[in-house]
Specification:
18% strand, single chain, alpha/beta, 40% helix, Diaminopimelate Epimerase, Chain A, domain 1, six-stranded parallel sheet, six-stranded mixed sheet
């Protein structure tokens, strides 16, 4: 493993650097990646952000977005950049399977691999690790990495600050989750002082829906919401026909599960959606309820205690029934 002195020495001279993050990147994934990108290019590094898949259009405004390469659209260029990289920064994921086909390319690369992440049980593929499961966002760890480990706060300009603030704001659910600590608020305040336009960021992320996205949300809440008060659980479902009817694109389902969790007394919420090749689950919970335990044990997934995800190759109806069938196992926790 590299130590920070060795890593700092490596970064003292321009390097060919690839920055990547998990498939279907969210606000933290893109904010972290573009925040680090905007930091590195100031030092003359030849940096490129490569995402395994596309991502929500309402993140396209972030500084540096125009330089992002999407692997599924440019596989040969991406493979060439990964093979030729001196360093690969792996952000907001801790297992190579989270970057799909890119995982094998990154795993085989001779580049130094730096993991910056806050998820449980990291896979041992990295040469340097900045990892904290108590962090609310990977963007928080990028800030620490730049300020505390590299001692280079002076290079957090408006572009870097804007991206990192976006990552923290989105992954903390608007600074509302339990791991939004005093440190998180201090970092956010520092980023605002360094140029992050916090009100504008909120507008671009949260008030930037298409008409189809809003109508799809309306159907989910009016027709697809089921509340199981015996288990303090709410479920929203969507099938392939729903996605096609409302022309749902990447990012349109983001945050829907939180509406179910907002119901008074609800402790566990699930959004279960039928994709063309699999069924995906997004779980959110309150307090100490372990949403990640359900995803890990039953749905080939995992995540954080209060925010987790999983997948299944079963039908939508089978997954819904399976999810309901396991609730009695957690009844005591759900009624505490």
């Amino acid at each position: 493993m590299l130590d920070i002195a060795s890593l700092t020495e490596l970064l003292a001279q321009p390097k060919k650097i690839v920055i990547t993050t998990h498939h279907k990147p969210d606000g933290d994934a893109m904010g972290s990646s573009l925040g680090l990108y905007n930091y590195l290019i100031q030092q003359g590094h030849h940096a490129k952000v490569i995402t395994p898949t596309d991502y929500a259009q309402y993140f396209n405004w972030m500084p540096g977005n125009g330089e992002v390469i999407i692997y599924t659209e440019h596989p040969e260029q991406s493979a060439e950049l990964i093979a030729g990289a001196d360093m690969i920064f792996c952000l907001d994921f801790n297992a190579l399977g989270r970057i799909n086909e890119m995982g094998e390319l990154v795993g085989n690369s001779k580049a130094f691999k730096i993991m910056i992440d806050h998820h449980l049980e990291p896979q041992d593929f990295d040469d340097y690790r900045c990892w904290d499961i108590n962090a609310c966002a990977t963007a928080q760890l990028i800030y620490r990495f730049i300020v505390d480990e590299l001692n280079n706060k002076k290079l957090i300009n408006k572009d870097v600050a804007t991206c990192l603030y976006t990552g923290i704001m989105t992954d903390s659910a608007g600074f509302s989750l339990p791991n939004t600590t005093a440190e998180v608020h201090r970092i956010a305040a520092n980023l605002i002082e360094l140029g992050a336009p916090n009100s504008r960021i909120n507008e671009l992320v949260n008030n930037n829906s298409s008409e189809n996205r809003l109508r799809f949300l309306g159907v989910c809440l009016s027709e697809k919401l089921e509340v199981l008060y015996e288990y303090n659980t709410a479920i929203i479902t969507a099938n392939k026909e729903d996605l096609e009817k409302y022309e749902v694109i990447t990012g349109d389902t983001e945050g829907i599960v939180n509406y179910a969790l907002s119901i008074s007394g609800i402790k566990l919420a699930a959004f279960i959606v039928e994709r063309p090749d699999k069924v995906k689950l997004s779980l959110r919970s309150k307090g100490e309820f372990p949403a990640n335990d359900i995803c890990k044990k039953y749905f080939n997934g995992g995540g954080h205690r209060n925010a987790a995800g999983g997948i299944s190759s079963d039908s939508l109806e089978q997954v819904i029934n399976q999810f309901k069938s396991i609730l009695p196992e957690y009844k005591k926790l759900l009624n505490e």
